[in-house]
Amino acid sequence: MNALSPPGISAAPLLRGENLSRSFGGGGWFGRGRPILAVRGVDLHLARGEALGVVGESGCGKSTLGRLLLNLLPPTSGKVVFEGEALDALPAGKLRALRRRMQMVFQDPYGSLDPRRSVGAQIADGLLIHRMADATGAAARVAELLRQTGLEPAHAMRLPHEFSGGQRQRIAIARALATRPDFIVADEPVSALDVSIQAQIVNLLADLRSELGLALLFISHDLHVVRHLCDRVMVMYLGRVVEQGSAAAIFAAPAHPYTRALLEATPSMRHPVTAAPLPGEVPSVANPPSGCPFRTRCPAAESRCAEAMPPLEAHPADASRQLACWRAAELA
Amino acid sequence: MRRSLRRLVLPAGLLGLILLLALAAPLLPLADPVRQNIAGRLALPSANFWLGQDEYGRDVLSRILWGARVSLSVALAATIIAAVIGTLLGILGGYFRKFVELVTVRLAEVVLCFPPMLLALLVVTLLGPGAGTLVVSLGILFAPAFACLAYAETLSARALDYVTAQQALGAGPGRILLRTLLPNIAPPLIVQFSLTVASAMVLESGLSFLGLGVVPPSPSWGLMIRGARATMEQAPLLLFWPCLALAGTVLVLNLFCDRLRDALDPRAGGGGPAGFLRRAAALPGPALRKDATPGLLRIRGLTLEITGPRGPVAVVRDVGFSVAPGKTLALVGESGSGKTLTGLAVMGLLPGAVRVASGEILYTSRDGATRDLLRLPEAELRALRGRDLSMVFQDPSSSLNPLLRIGSQVAEALPRAPGRMARVVELFRQVGLPDPEGRARAWPHALSGGQRQRVMIAAAIANHPRLLLADEPTTALDVTVQAQILELLAGLKRSEQGMGMVFVTHNLAVVAQIADRVAVMYAGEVVEEGPVAEVFTAPRHPYTAALIAATPEGEAERLSAIPGAVPQAWAMPAGCRFAPRCSEARPACAQTAPPLQSIGPGRATRCLRWKELA
Ligand SMILES: Nc1ncnc2c1ncn2[C@@H]1O[C@H](COP(=O)(O)OP(=O)(O)OP(=O)(O)O)[C@@H](O)[C@H]1O
Ligand code: SF4
Ligand code: SF4
Ligand SMILES: [Mg+2]
């Protein structure tokens, strides 16, 4: 698997997710609740300093996966191993201490900051919780972080509502960076932002990654952004990984029918979409189709696709890539 | 913040006065509240007894003030106990769920099931009357309401990102509960506090009135009401004074807590609620324009204003563009650039705070007459809305009435005639809804986002509109579904002969996909207009060029970002509005506001330096 890591990135994984699954609900009122399988059997690994993009449409389990990796949600099965330690086996105190090293940036810059506390206080939270600084030390670090994320130290006194969406996202990034983490989950950090601001944040994340050697799990539905920022990509559909591999290879020649459809459907200024759009919509996670999850919309589906779930296997022509499709060999 | 603090002064002053009077009662030169004076029985107000004397000849003013001590302290003490215990139970139950939730919140719910008076009677009977008992029983009585409120608020706040962020930072439960959750669930609790103090005072009066609360002869407002009732006919004023004290205190308290809650809201004073759309007042002048050359839609000099703290602020300024029959114009720009307001102005529907300052929106209808929509009387405009002009909004889920079957909702757009339902089914087929007959009887919640947007489009094209305004119709949708909707709209343009479309979006790639012409908006102004292909290959405004460069496509290693942010409506730069962020700006740009000038057939730009930069 480590063959996947591009050169220059250390091979020992910082973080590993093994066979992660998470379901919600089940039982429920009136006895008609079916468990929702938000994430199903996902394996992944992330090296120090590596950026992994997770793409897919709404409800495919991207956010749930991000929260599982940080143990903000416990997995229903499978485990997350951070530097050799399984997070679910850690006592609560140790887990909290470990949180210093892994952080999260959320999608909605309006909802992720406490509206009643100054941004400086919120950026300093991590430092004080982990006793990494006293009050004066924290103030100095907050000023440094604000500068690093393109804001001004004087902004520390203000409340979140005095900032624009892009500025708030910078504040959220500053908060995540405060404890000098090794790993950040960024859950659609630019989706709520305007194009010009989006570019600022993407560039900021790219800079921070190279300066600080951060490992990044970048969740997005915008393939163009992922391509700019990530070394590797994981494409998800209905809670499963359907294709993964190096970003460059996947964007140049998507192999899975869903990845292809996704790339074709993404509007582009330079090449207008010509292919017929994919029919239908993502089926409900509560009631996924039998066999291949994509078969209800797949232009290449055959009868065998309904029978069993295709396993995630090496790409026939490129061993560094993997995809889950019965017809991988024919379609490649 | 400052305004809401100022609004707090009056109720705080009144409340302070009430408390001060109650506290200072022993120091004031008042008659003894319990000294009887049979001679002055039921006497009217006099120089010595300002409010008169009661049925035992005691001084009413003195009894009101001394009574305030009892009534207020019982009510406040009981409410504080209830608030502390209840909030603690609710917040713990809401945060930890599971077992804790069971013991705390469910218990509180059981207590809530008892009628309050009955419960109070029970406790008082068990413990015997007196102020102490009263405090305990009222405390028990009111705690569950706090618990349930705190529980519900905690449940919803707990799922918010900023609470998860605290968890992700490694904060322990104590810190999250105290630092993050408590301050954020406080506002409704404060309101509850004021309501509870008020009902505690009323209940105290009630219990004392029944003889189960404060023991006579100590004065309390409840006892005073009870005493005055017997002599109501001879001395109605005796009933009036304690009632006035009770009602006045309750009112002041409610006002105080209400304003306190506003003052604690960090966003207080910022822009008001968006509110309903309403018909914008028609501008004076004739609507019919015989002189104008017919087109489909021509907007010129449209300026929309809101009233800011320092006078009117133009949120849309001097906007102009035109749409030819059968063509699509994309209105593109960043959030807050005025795209939606411009679209709404065409429909003659604007949020309450926005008014039309000037401009004209010329529309040529089927009969060939050209009218100015800004000057058209509402009755005539209403006849156009939904028939000639129709609109599709961004969020398909909030545009449908959840309580009506979708077939009937679309039918509402059609004139009453037999065969309406058949036409609805036909429309559903046209917009590509699977199983159109079945869908017509479905409820909105049974449809996916993309299907709801198809329903909205079906309703919008029901009467073959001549102009369709689509406000970010695909922004809330997934990429593959967006592709379907874009194809549907492109197909409609072919099938609905001559229908023009204004497509509002912030996504340049979508513009390339769907539009013939594009108008780029920045900070309330159109900065460039022209055919899409020309504008995208040879932009003539630095903002358009920067926007294209910032779009994450292509091979560039680094995205080129536009520094800074869109200026706020009330802090617009004096000259060119883009100057603070423009890489080509010169000192002259900050002085003169550039006009939108024509720079070739069908192209215009609002840049002083376009020629040098071309
Ligand atoms: N707390 C929860 N309770 C029940 N269902 C949940 C919960 N959180 C997520 N889900 C469900 O799990 C599935 C995956 O959710 P997730 O938020 O991970 O998707 P996503 O890819 O991030 O979507 P989006 O792009 O819309 O944010 C969805 O069907 C969602 O409704
Ligand atoms: S397994 Fe079948 S249905 Fe699934 S992606 Fe491959 S061809 Fe399509
Ligand atoms: S007028 Fe000046 S500041 Fe404005 S866009 Fe043109 S060059 Fe830039
Ligand atoms: Mg998500």
Question: Explain this structure to me?
Answer:
Chain B: GO terms for molecular function: ATP binding; ATP hydrolysis activity. Chain B: Its main location: membrane. Chain B: It is a peripheral membrane protein; Multi-pass membrane protein. Chain B: Residues 68-257 form the ABC transmembrane type-1 domain. The complex is a heterodimer of chains A (332) and B (614). Chain A is an alpha/beta fold and 332 residues long. Chain A has two domains: 13-101 and 181-331, P-loop containing nucleotide triphosphate hydrolases (Rossmann fold, 3-Layer(aba) Sandwich), CATH 3.40.50.300; 108-180, no CATH class. Chain A has helices at residues 62-69, 92-98, 119-129, 135-148, 165-177, 195-212, 223-229, 247-252, 257-265, 328-331; strands at residues 13-24, 36-47, 51-55, 77-82, 85-86, 102-105, 183-187, 215-220, 232-237, 240-246, 313-314, 322-323. The model of chain A is unreliable at 1-9 (pLDDT under 50). Chain B is an alpha/beta fold and 614 residues long. Among the domains of chain B are: 3-33 and 59-264, MetI-like (MetI-like fold), CATH 1.10.3720; 281-388 and 465-535, Rossmann fold (3-Layer(aba) Sandwich). Chain B is built from 21 helices and 14 strands. Chain B has helices at 2-24, 60-96, 98-113, 116-127, 131-158, 161-169, 173-209, 221-230, 236-264, 339-347, 378-384, 396-399, 406-411, 420-430, 436-440, 449-461, 479-495, 508-514, 532-537, 542-550, 610-613, and strands at 277-279, 297-308, 311-323, 328-333, 349-351, 355-364, 370-372, 389-392, 467-471, 500-505, 517-522, 525-531, 597-600, 603-605. Chain B is elongated, with a radius of gyration of 34 Å. Bound molecules: adenosine-5'-triphosphate (ATP), iron/sulfur cluster (2 copies) and magnesium ion. Magnesium ion (MG) is lined by residues 62-63, 187-188 of chain A.
